[in-house]
Amino acid sequence: VLHLFCAALTEHKILFLSSSYQRLTDACRALLALMFPLKYSFTYVPILPAQLLEVLSTPTPFIIGVHSIFQSETQELLDVVIADLDGGTVNVPECVHISLLPEPLLQQTREALSMVLDPELEVADLAFPPSTISVSSLKMQDKEIRAVFLRLFAQLLQGYRWCLHIIRIHPEPVIRFHKV
Fold first, then answer.
1. Would you indicate the residue range of the signal peptide (predicted)?
2. pLDDT in tens, 105-149
3. How far apart are CA 142 and CA 168, in angstroms?
């Protein structure tokens, strides 16, 4: 999920494959939801009809869902990250480099997601584990996952004002983003 998240943030082509239209739609919508508060501004097609498979060759970034019966048509795509929802795999081609999160944030996000999705892992190695482990409901899990990614964005974007420069030579001041 973090590879797909980083691929979407860095404007790569992402293709979801599944035999279930519901799963395709849910996966595409979930990826967009994880990007909140940012909005995805490229091509977004949760279920691509068979007649439009040539759209996958477009040079622009996209998030597209395709039924798995068309998997053979997607094999020649060299610059597309393919997530097989039925098999649970993510295939990143050799020519695609996905920039992952900076290291302290990547590990913290993985640990936080692990705690939300499988809280038993935290106490698995304890000699005397607590008698009860609270597992969140699906609705609460959804909110906890959103909170993990919202905190990630807050940590990524903290201090952005230091990178803003005001240029006053124009009649109207211009704000320019310049990473030091």
1. none
2. 999 999 999 888 887 777 677 777 666 666 678 888 889 999 999
3. 45
- Residues sharing a CB contact under 8 Å with residue 153, sequence separation 6 or more, in sequence order: 37, 38
pTM recorded for the entire structure? 0.80
Q: What is the CATH number of the domain that holds 16?
A: 3.40.50.11500
Preceding peptide of 49 cis, ω within 30°: no
Task: Give Cβ neighbours of residue 54 (< 8 Å, ≥ 6 apart).
Answer: none
Q: Coil, helix or strand for 89?
A: strand
Number of domains in the chain: 2
In the DSSP assignment, the letter for residue 37 is T
Task: Give dist(CA 112, CA 105) in Å, integer.
Answer: 10
